[in-house]
């Protein structure tokens, strides 16, 4: 038979114990349950030896296996991890989610995992009392141009999924044109506006919202956009931007249809995106800049 045990860190360990089959009631009554429990109990001497084998450098007292450490490191280093960009870390996270979550909690961080879009990221924890907790995360405010692009990317990604395509692409010029269409009529500094839009594209690429391809002017849209901008938040921001530009808000029928089609969006992600009075999008996202 197979006996399943867990160590102190919740890591699954499976030991095979050979026993004779119990075919009748007499044999069942004679079976020594206590003796079996002792036989199947974990060997703490072996655990101590295994604990020593976890050391990866002199003086290392860490309790995580190397794969778990790399997964935790990736979550702390990057804005998010995904199944396509970080397949090894994603696989480890799915199996050891409770262990990784516990170590993030020690740093006052929460773990958000979206299995539908296969992305995971950390976020600042909130105390039940409402008191502030120490934070390792930086509050990143996206510019108006970045916010416009994120709304466009979210709509495009959603539309592509509705058509049965799991991967969505967008060209640089398409993004620039979308930002230009959202500029108010009184905006006359075209050169400066163009420069800001170009910087917005580079910023979203650095943030992992836009994923680079072989063509420097063509990007793949990351699924993280749906998690960061659930439909309710996207509608609020779109209405605000159009009001600022003196244009009509989105047709309510279209918005309702989008809401109905996207009713399964994770409402918890709404706490990760808050719009402020200047139209930027605030995200608590990471500890340090992600490597290009």
Q: Give me the Rg, rounded.
A: 25 Å
Strand content range: 15-25%
Low-confidence stretches: 2-7, 9-49, 249-280, 284-292
Largest sheet: 3 strands, antiparallel
> What structural class do the secondary elements suggest?
alpha+beta
By DSSP (H or I, 4+ residues per run), the number of helices equals 12
Fraction of helical residues: 40-55%
Q: What is the number of E strands?
A: 11
Globally, the shape reads elongated
Cα separation of the termini: 49 Å
The tally of domains stands at: 3
In sequence order, what are the helices and strands, one letter per element? EEHHHHEHHEEEHEHHEEHHHEE
Major β-sheet strand ordering: 3-5-4
Give the overall pLDDT as a whole number. Answer: 74
Overview of the structural elements:
It is built from twelve helices and eleven strands. It has 292 residues and is α+β, with helices and mostly antiparallel strands. It has three domains: 2-53, no CATH class; 66-124; 139-284, no CATH class. The strands form four sheets. It has a three-stranded antiparallel beta sheet with strand order 3-5-4. Strands 6-11-10 form a three-stranded antiparallel beta sheet. A hairpin with a 5-residue loop joins strand 10 (274-275) and strand 11. Helix 7 packs across helix 9. The longest helix has 19 residues, at 144-162.
């Amino acid at each position: 038979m197979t006996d399943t045990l867990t160590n102190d860190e919740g890591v699954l360990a499976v030991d095979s114990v050979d026993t004779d089959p119990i075919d009748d009631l007499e044999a069942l009554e004679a079976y020594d349950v206590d003796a079996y429990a002792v036989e199947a109990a974990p060997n703490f001497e072996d655990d101590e030896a295994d604990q020593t084998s976890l050391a990866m450098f002199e003086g290392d007292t860490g309790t995580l296996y190397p794969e778990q450490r790399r997964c935790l490191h990736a979550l702390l280093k990057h804005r998010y991890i995904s199944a396509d960009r970080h397949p090894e870390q994603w696989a480890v996270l799915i199996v050891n989610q409770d262990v990784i979550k516990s170590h993030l909690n020690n740093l006052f961080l929460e773990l958000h995992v979206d299995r539908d879009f296969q992305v995971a990221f950390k976020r600042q924890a909130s105390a039940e009392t409402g008191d502030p907790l120490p934070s390792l995360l930086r509050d990143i405010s996206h510019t108006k141009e970045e916010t416009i692009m994120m709304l466009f990317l979210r709509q495009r990604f959603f539309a592509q999924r509705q058509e049965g395509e799991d991967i969505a692409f967008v060209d640089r010029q398409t993004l620039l044109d979308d930002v230009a269409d959202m500029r108010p009529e009184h905006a006359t500094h075209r050169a400066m506006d163009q420069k800001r839009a170009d910087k917005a594209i580079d910023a979203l690429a650095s943030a992992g919202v836009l994923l680079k391809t072989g063509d420097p002017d063509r990007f793949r849209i990351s699924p993280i956009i749906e998690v960061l901008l659930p439909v309710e938040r996207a509608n609020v921001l779109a209405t605000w931007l159009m009001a600022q530009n003196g244009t009509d808000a989105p047709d309510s029928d279209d918005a309702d249809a989008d809401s109905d089609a996207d009713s399964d969006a994770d409402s918890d992600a709404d706490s990760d995106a808050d719009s402020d009075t200047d139209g930027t999008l605030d995200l608590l996202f990471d500890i340090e800049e992600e490597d290009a």
